[in-house]
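Subject: two folds for Thursday's group meeting

Dear M.,

Sorry for the delay on this. The cluster queue was jammed most of the week, so I only got both jobs back this morning. I'm pasting them in the order they finished. Each block is the input sequence followed by the predicted structure tokens. Could you check whether the formatting survives your parser before we put anything on slides? The first protein is the one we discussed after the seminar.
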Amino acid sequence: MAKVQYKEQAILKIAYWLISTTSWNKLKSATWVPIPPSKAKSDPLYDDRLYRVLLKMKEHEGSLDIRELLLAQSSREAAHNPGAVRPKVQDHLANFVIDESLKVPKPQGIIYLMT
């Protein structure tokens, strides 16, 4: 239970930190896209914390445009695991697909949130 509470506190802290930035008025008009984690959405170990950070931000700024435009096609080993081989940028890009149903309306600017 403590780990879940810690994660929720961290999500809230990061969300409020992002909306308190001096550039918030410029940033809030962009489309916010969480970068997919190492697990695909269909994986039971999928971690949606970046998306939850954005949802917390949306509670403050109701018009915030949040879209999961990028999806991981398949799960991979997390790079932070002991002995794991860190994937190259090209490996990540090859595993991502764009959710075509979320491309409209065309974003005016995109901010990617990643761990």
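Second protein, same layout:
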Amino acid sequence: MGNLHTTGTKQALDVETIRSQFPILHQQVNSRPLIYFDNAASNQKPELVIKALEHYYHCDHANIHRGVHTLAERATTAYEETRKITADFINAPEAEEVIFTKGTTEGINLVASAYGRAFLQEGDEVLISNMEHHSNIVPWQLLCEEKGLILKVLPLKDNGEIKWEVLDQLLTPKTKMVSLVHASNTLGTINPIKNVIRQAHDLGALVMIDGAQAAAHLEIDVQDLDCDFYAFSSHKMYGPTGVGVLYGKRRLLEKMKPYQGGGEMIKEVSFEGTTFSDIPHKFEAGTPNIADVVAFKQAIEFIEGIGKSSIAAHEDQLLKQATEQWSKIPGFRAVGTAQQKVAVLSFVMEGIHHFDLGVMLDAKGIAVRTGHHCTQPLMECYGIEGTVRASFSAYNTEEEVDIMSGHLKDITNKLRS
């Protein structure tokens, strides 16, 4: 794809070639060239993903799995090809263990509903952490209220790492589900999930992993991890919105009841009773988001064409540069300084509200995220209302980091003068 060039013994991204593939980046916002540092919320889409959507609607649109005509067969083939490449992407043993959802949120809700309601009993414990996104808190709270379960929470250190020394205390034979984020959307912290999975399994607990922030940046091998469920979203992987993936082990998916009822997920329906389709189709009721699933294949191929290790190395360099430069600005304080991080830098600036700083940066053409980032318990843990969050992607440049550094200095100087 022409995205790499060799410098000595190292391979570096050809960022300009990558940027040329993203139409949205070539515009001005508030009379300034757009600098997009909101990738943890949703990253931008390359031309090949956009064209895949256009091609589907121009040439192939039809409902899938139901028709014998040519368009229906083409659409079905394209949809199922995405399932196969997704299974390969995470090294799932078989494509049937890949369920398409609306996003990570629906994947977690599906597990809480279809597994939790059926197999967790009053007094059982669910273990999460204090860095979880609301999507990995609220579904378990609802289930706990409904079933009389006990929700336990792993606490955090000041640097944004989990206090793993208390895991042995909180993980007990009563723990039936551990649901943990792979990489924090607010702190960037990468959790040692393989170790947690092993410990949980030793006590008979299942493990659900929220991989929303990890799937585009970290190598994901669900067989090596031995996780029971793993959920992630297309829109954080250069793909369309409205598409997510839930991986689950076949033996678990087969004994779970359908999450929703309707068309496509059935074998036969009568007024006396209904029988359900095999996995994965029994969890994909109704007409799915066909076009976006089809285009998601192109997003996966885009990532694989560059290589996750190359993307991660580039993003890590941007994170290091930003951390070093911005830390020199008076009043700057990073929130989340774990040793192992994805390219997320959350911070507060003393005496300046995070919302005000975000608005002022937007006036300079810089898109960052402000607020609690759907992690309000984490913010409460650190005694803050919210942060400014800059998050980096393959198409971001060192020059963009320098530009934001200059504006941060100017803004803080003006507000304090």
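Two things I noticed about the second structure. The first strand starts at residue 4 and ends at 7. The chain has two domains: 4-41+308-416, 50-304.

Cheers,
T.
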